[in-house]
Amino acid sequence: MNQDSTPAPAQAPATARGQRTRQKLVEAAEVVFGEKGFERASIADITRQAGVALGTFYVYFADKQALLVEVVDGLAARLKAELAGAIGGRGDRLEVERRGLKAFFAFTARHRQLYRVVRQCEFVDEACFRRYYRGFAEPYARALARAQAAGEVRRLDPEAVAYALMGVADFLGMRYVLWGRGKGQAAALDAAVEFIRAGLAAPGAPAARPRRAPRRRSP
Fold first, then answer.
1. How many domains, in total, are found in the chain?
2. Residues 23 and 70 reside in one and the same domain
């Protein structure tokens, strides 16, 4: 099922109580869609998880697709805010990359259904799925272009580099945060940053000092 028909954003509830109820449904849907999948999840499952009456769902959302879009858009907005707070516009490009990766890992650890929910959207509402990734790639590419203009990194297609680096973060988060439950995450972060440094280093930039391998104790 892929109708590619992203519904128009719903009007925000007028009362604080309504806003809380709507948010409960969104948070419940993140859990239910992640655990059961969009097709198997029912509206009754979502309202049960949220602790609200079944009929309450339709006060805020037209159908499951509208709610899935809300969940994905909401996750994107929260992740963007977290990345912006971590990066803060300070430091050289390599330090920005490190802080951004670290913040993404932390967000993924708290929202363990992120991958499943976003990827389901590709088959339910492709416009939302593309919007999710473009929403990160476009400002990322602009930041890389500014770094190129300042001579901080080598000149490459900024959009292609943005998607490549997003792929690095995506798979490392899957492997070390979700599958590995954080084990080896610090070493993976160091490896990724060194990999990125080698790929982005401007011509003539000083090489990074190699990390000294830890000494092994004799048995």
1. 2
2. no
CA distances from 36 to 32, 41, 46, 71, 111 (A): 6, 6, 11, 15, 16
Per-position b or e across 120-156, b if 16+ CB within 10 A of its CB? bbeebbeebbebbbeebbeebbebbbebbeeebbeee
For residues 121 and 204, what is the distance between their CA atoms, to the nearest angstrom? 44
Is 11 part of any domain? no
Same domain, residue pair 131 and 146: yes
Which CATH number covers residue 47?
A: 1.10.10.60
Tell me the pLDDT of the chain (219 aa) as tens digits.
555 544 444 556 778 899 999 999 999 999 999 999 999 999 999 999 999 999 999 999 999 999 999 999 999 999 999 999 999 866 788 899 999 999 999 999 999 999 999 999 999 999 999 999 999 999 999 999 999 999 999 999 999 999 999 999 999 999 999 999 999 999 999 999 999 999 998 776 554 444 444 444 443
CATH of the domain at 150: 1.10.357.10
Domain ranges, residue 29:
16-61
CA–CA gap between residue 1 and residue 121 (Å, rounded): 10
> Which residues sit opposite 201 in a β-bridge?
153
Kindly state whether residues 108 and 164 are assigned to the same domain. yes
Residues contacting 196, CB < 8 A, separation 6+? 94, 97, 165, 168
